């Protein structure tokens, strides 16, 4: 089965297709699983890693202050000045080695100035530096159905393999059915029999008089 570049990467946001062969808790585990498939000559162009339950994680790096903001701005500006100095050196005909140091110093000075101004504008609202990442709770490895059994067999040693057999349907639980037309009515109690009255006792005869 061959894939072209246009078929492999859709031009519009499209949900991935295929069968889930394994699920892992971290991206590194899913990456190692795909590397194992590639080492065993599996057609990895048919494989997709899908992260589910995405969360944005922001990790605080350090507390910001005027000295730290100035130092960070100077270093970033100095790197930019170094890049500009290298460009000027390459395209200079008379050996532009003397412009390297001024370019670094000017770049650092402008970076320091802009960083301090930016920090002063956000003073009291964000006094810390952080790094943000999009992290998924789980990562699934998908591939076409015709290659799913082979992928599960190759990934058996890594764990996390998901069975391809669907779960059997659960039988429905019986219960009372209620509709707007015919509401549920509890069953009527069975009629009780009337109490049994014993028959009246026969009248007693007076004793006979004694005979003489």
TrEMBL record:
Residues 160-212 are annotated as: Disordered. The keyword Ribonucleoprotein does not apply. InterPro entries: GSP17M-like_dom. Residues 166-212 have a biased composition (Pro residues). It comes from the Bacteria. Residues 20-93 form the General stress protein 17M-like domain. The chain crosses the membrane at residues 69-93, 99-121. Keywords: Membrane, Transmembrane, Transmembrane helix. This is DUF4175 domain-containing protein.
């Amino acid at each position: 089965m061959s894939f072209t570049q246009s078929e492999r990467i859709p031009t519009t946001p499209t949900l991935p297709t295929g069968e889930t062969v394994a699920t892992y808790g971290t991206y590194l585990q899913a990456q190692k699983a795909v590397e194992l498939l590639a080492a065993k000559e599996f057609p990895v162009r048919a494989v997709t890693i899908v992260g589910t339950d995405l969360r944005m994680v922001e990790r605080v790096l350090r507390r910001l202050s005027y000295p730290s903001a100035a130092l960070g701005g100077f270093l970033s500006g100095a790197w930019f000045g170094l890049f500009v100095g290298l460009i000027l050196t390459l395209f200079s005909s008379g050996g532009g080695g003397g412009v390297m140091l001024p370019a670094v110093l000017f770049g650092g000075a402008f970076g320091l100035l802009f960083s301090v101004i930016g920090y002063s504008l956000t003073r009291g609202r964000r006094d810390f530096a952080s790094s943000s990442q999009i992290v998924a709770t789980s990562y699934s490895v998908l591939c076409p159905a015709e290659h799913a059994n082979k992928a599960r067999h190759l990934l058996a040693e890594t764990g996390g393999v998901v069975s391809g057999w669907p779960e059997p349907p659960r039988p429905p639980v019986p219960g009372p059915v209620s509709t707007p037309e015919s509401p549920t009515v509890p069953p009527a109690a069975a009629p009780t029999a009337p109490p049994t009255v014993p028959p009246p006792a026969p009248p007693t005869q007076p004793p006979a008089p004694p005979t003489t």
